[in-house]
Every structure is written in C-alpha cells, then in structure tokens.
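#onboarding

Welcome to the new folks! Below is a worked example of what a typical request in this channel looks like: someone posts a single protein sequence, and someone else replies with the predicted structure as tokens. Don't worry about understanding the tokens yet, we'll cover that in week two.

Example request:
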Amino acid sequence: MEWNMEFRKLSLVIITAATVIASCKNGKKATHNNTDMATLDVSAANFTDGVTLTKVPCTLSDGTETECYKIVTNSTPSDHQMGPWCPEHITDDAEAGGIWLKNGEVYDVDGAFIENLSEFYGDSTWQMYDDEGNIFITKTEEDCNNAANPNVGEEYQNFCVECIPSYITEVTQSYLIPITPVLQDELTLFSRGHGGGGPGGPGGADRPDRPERPDNGDRPERPDGERGPRPDGERGPGGPGGPGNDQNTAPSTRGIALNGVEFSAPAPVNNILSAYTIAPFDDAGGHINVHQGYHYHTATGVSHSIDQNDDHSALIGYALDGIGIYGQLDKNGNAPTDLDEARGHYDAIRGYHYHVDAAGNNNFINGLKGAYAVD
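Example response:
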C-alpha cells in the first residue's frame, strides 16, 4: 500500500515536470491564473525590428493592475511591401491588383474581376472602367479621403479606392497589451454587425440588386486616433453588443501582427459596396486609411510569423489581451476542431491561444478570453 502511494506521488511529479518543460518550449514563460489553464507571456523578441515595445504600468478591464507593453508603430510593415490594390486596366493580370473577399472566398482583383463586377454582384450599375478599359482609381490623397467618407458623393461611384503609402508617412499608432494574460471566466465576444455579415463577411449573402446609400455608414474605417478600448460598434462592424453580450465594451482592434500592423475589425463591406466602390486589400490582407495607416482585415500568411517546433501553425501576432494568435491551419493543412466561440483553445505547449479565421472571412478572432488594457 505504501509503495503504491509513493509510486503515485512520483508519477504526479513526473507528469507535472513534463508539462512545465513542454510549456516552456520555445523559450517562453508559462504563467498560471485562476482558470486552471496556462498562458504564455508576450515575448518582445517575436516582433520585427522597427516595432518599439516599452514596459508600462496599466489597468486591465477586470481591474487588474499589471504591466503592459506599450507598442508604438508607424503602421507600415517592415517585412513585406504594401500593395498593389487596384489594377489600371481591364486587361491587367492578378499581379497588378490585390484581393477581395466575398462569402468566405478570396478573389484576385485583376482586370477581369473589375470588368465583371456587374455580373459578380448581379447589378448593372457596376461600371468601373471607361470605353478604353481604363479603370477609375482614386489618384490623390484628397480623392482617397473623399471616397472613404461615410457620405461619399456620387462622383466617386464606381471607383476603385486606393490609398497609397506616401499618404501615411506621419502616422503612428500606440497600443497597450498585457505582458502576462489574465484569463477570464467568460469570453468577451466582439460585435459582428453589418460590417462582418454582408458581402465578403462570414456567413454573408450577396448584396441586394440596388441597395440604398447608407445615411451615416462607417466606410471604410473611421479616424481612430489612439487605439484605446473603444466599444466595438463605434467603428467598423455593427453597434455595441456581440452575440450573447448586450453590453459589449470590447475594443474594436483585434490585435497586433508581429510586424506591428493592426489586426482590425472586419471591413464594413456592406457600406463600401452600397456606394458602388471597392477598397481592395493587398495580397497580405491589408489596405490604407490615411488616419489609421496600413492595417489588416484578414490573414493570408504573408506577414512575419514564428514557426513552432511541432506541427502546430505559426504564431502571427497577439490579441489585445496578450494571448497569442496563430495561423488557421497546421503544417499538415488541418484546422483545429475544438475552438471555443472566440476561436481559442488550449494545449500544453502554448497554453490557451487563438487560431485566426479563414482568409476569406474578413475576420481574425471572434472575442477575447483575457482582460484587456483600459488605460
């Protein structure tokens, strides 16, 4: 009997040690909290050069006083080029343009795509090129601002909206992310609203033949200023309140890529299309707003990532609660099947973490498991 008890104690020690070793793989600290699950601290070493991280005191949404990384970025990636977005002629191939999302699918914005928009959306009003096949593109910063205005004028109907890097040379953004995630008992789900559920958004249906122009839409992203924990409905998709959460105060920003570029809320595709414009993303899933800088609306596998030592998908960024965001598919091309509503789950190496949504879904993650900074 005594031998059995000693054996069980020894087995428990071995199992616990193995878990700690596995959790510390890749040189990251595993921390524990009140949820019986581990998390990994944010590692500054995972970010690319040019992203400045400073430790600062901060207060989280659950009242926890802790340390955060203040991340300051110029909202441009250092690991890949931005653009192109809009092709110039209907004969241009896919190399001349970016991508567009509809009903979970990714489409190349080449000349043929622009030429066939009326068929693509079942609406003859679409005619984004002249008699010689030249595509109507915003050419100046003023055009970019005007075409991105919520009350865009008819003079910008049937324009391909393209804002270029030279418009954002003075733009910087700051973010606060807790270094050690603090898991919560309940998820904070993001509002999805009209921005994420229409054409190009998850579960969206085709746009009606002749939609009304929005009275006070939010296309594309409204000027943001500081990236604080603004209620999700104030910009981008929908109003306050996510699924099962009528008082949702989750921040609109989903997280930060390892190159310092924002993972944004779903693009308000309904409002963009209802003005008969499109604002393509480049092949990395990003485009430019002159107030916000370059930002992503989907993950396509282009931005900097950290490969894992097993078959798990690579780390691509961190959510605003400090929890890691990983690619959708593992090295064998398989997606996890046990994700919760926020698109998160747990394993012994990475602790609780998220997996990004499919590239065609105009989405990253659906909510936060951890507390986020409210300073």
